[in-house]
Amino acid sequence: MLYQIKSAKSLDEIERGLQESAVRHQFGVVAVHDLKETLKKKGVDLAMECRIYEVCNPVQAKKVLDADGAISTALPCRISVYGKSSQYTLATMRPTEMMKAFANPEIEPVAREVEAVILQMMQDAAA
What we know:
Number of domains: 1
Largest sheet: 5 strands, antiparallel
CATH topology: TATA-Binding Protein
CATH superfamily: TT1751-like domain
Order of helices and strands: EHEHEHEEHH
Structural class: alpha+beta
Strand order of the largest sheet: 1-5-4-3-2
Strand content: 25-35%
CATH architecture: 2-Layer Sandwich
């Protein structure tokens, strides 16, 4: 269910790679959550960096939402980058696995397409 890859790149290089790859694949990065910074503002220190990138292709999102509005609970897709300098892991929950929870065969092809792109985006950013 979880897909993970490692990268020796800096956090900024990975972020730049994700942004560039998203554009090439007609996805957008709709939000970035810096959990280390968020927790710090709450008085909690996190030893590692942890950023979550919410990514979405609006055409694909509309397809699955038209099939079942409850899928909104799983959108947008998320890519997490965590670790310490030059030892980062990129991780995501596989859309094909998450969509099984909705038991709707109509969304399976869309989930496969989206998953292929997200994994490629992660590989692009990590390499």
